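FAQ: What does the model actually see?

It sees only this:
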Amino acid sequence: MSVGRIIETPACVAEGAAWLAARDGRMARALELTGPLPLRRRPDGFAELLGAIVSQQVSVASANAIWGRMKGAGLTGPRKIMWASDDDLRAVGLSRQKIRYARALAEARIDFKALRAFSNDQVQAILTEVPGIGPWTAEIYAMFSLGRADVFAPGDLALQEAARILFDLPERPKERAFRAMARDWTPWQSVAARLLWAYYRVVKDREGIAG
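And it is asked to produce this:
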């Protein structure tokens, strides 16, 4: 299977946004509110996924603090994680569960360069085999670290809420239904996600002002 289009520049995002706006008037209306969408490309590799594990179920501030301590201790690479003792990892703020997940990621020996050539489904299958990496984390990695243009994250609550508001749905779409809905945005599902996240922020800011 082909990897499909890779989002590399803001122009790629703008192309996808224009395609979505031309296809759906509600997407066009959302884009008018949000303005140009961010690129949001990130590095790929072990550290990016380890950082995603660190940030699970904690605040952004806590995750940043833990990650800062891990970087300071040189604990962001697979060998260092495997060589570190549990006490070393606890000292930087990792819980027992996250220590297990970090070690599982290190032991998985994923070939991150090879992932760049794998299909979206293959990337998802490989990453979700690792304890602590679920579908959402794998989708976000494919979207932002690999730059895949046609990946969506239907389990994301902000995306669900944005779709509920924008498309005037009676409730947040369930994950399976949302995945089916997102197929209408192929080959630019990742840009649709960027648009819905941006729209969500605009709407929530407006609600805050109104309140």
